């Protein structure tokens, strides 16, 4: 896959997608969103990619939506830009494979919101997070009022979005915004370690696990529990369930085939 604003590589079942507009601190523009959307379609269809890591490289995750573009936008332009953003970000959130955000440096505005679409977020000790849109006369538009509130609760979400101030990596860890904080030079090693563990899990079970959790966040408890029961039972029609339990009984490591 060749892109202007993204880099993609894959190795041993792990895809790595790197945001690549370094001069603009990976600010997210329409071209990046179109490319992200296309990349996600390709990754979804690529059986060689079992797990995806999204990163911004060593210096910055992303400084948010492209203000140079948005500064000249009217409501109609903003509407189509943010629709494109949701289309691309939803593809990340709904990818039927685990997605890890590996965050170094700043994850601001749309950058933080992109990380919220990932299943697992880890960051380096130098990472900072903010939803600073209020300081520009707008609000988060790429899921920040919804995904962030669901992840860390409405109280902290309002604190972050109303004040717009950055928080450091340790605070992000305390709020549950990230699962792990590591030294900067360990970020990709740790992300790959987690990805490799996930790549060895039964992919069908991971797929329905992700669906059950995501679905459950958006419906009432009874509907979520009903969905969980159904997909739990459904997994007993897979070879990977037979293999997982047989291997346990035989005291050996399971070998999953994704069937
Ligand atoms: N959009 C476009 N360009 C951006 C940008 C952004 N969000 N953030 C940084 N840049 C550009 C700067 O304009 C600058 O370009 P030039 O060299 O051509 O002047 C370059 O990146 C480097 O930035 P700075 O010189 O400002 O670097 P700094 O280290 O002094 O500051 C910063 C870094 C604190 C991130 C500062 O650039 C900043 O505050 N950026 C804006 C952050 C922000 O408000 N993000 C939210 C955007 S709105 C949004 O995301 C809405 C949504 O929900 C989609």
From TrEMBL:
<dbReference type="GO" id="GO:0018812">
    <property type="term" value="F:3-hydroxyacyl-CoA dehydratase activity"/>
</dbReference>
<dbReference type="GO" id="GO:0006635">
    <property type="term" value="P:fatty acid beta-oxidation"/>
</dbReference>
<comment type="pathway">
    <text>Lipid metabolism; butanoate metabolism.</text>
</comment>
<protein>
    <recommendedName>
        <fullName>short-chain-enoyl-CoA hydratase</fullName>
        <ecNumber>4.2.1.150</ecNumber>
    </recommendedName>
</protein>
<dbReference type="InterPro" id="IPR029045">
    <property type="entry name" value="ClpP/crotonase-like_dom_sf"/>
</dbReference>
<dbReference type="Pfam" id="PF00378">
    <property type="entry name" value="ECH_1"/>
</dbReference>
<comment type="similarity">
    <text>Belongs to the enoyl-CoA hydratase/isomerase family.</text>
</comment>
<dbReference type="InterPro" id="IPR018376">
    <property type="entry name" value="Enoyl-CoA_hyd/isom_CS"/>
</dbReference>
<comment type="subunit">
    <text>Homotetramer.</text>
</comment>
<dbReference type="InterPro" id="IPR014748">
    <property type="entry name" value="Enoyl-CoA_hydra_C"/>
</dbReference>
<keyword id="KW-0456">Lyase</keyword>
<dbReference type="InterPro" id="IPR001753">
    <property type="entry name" value="Enoyl-CoA_hydra/iso"/>
</dbReference>
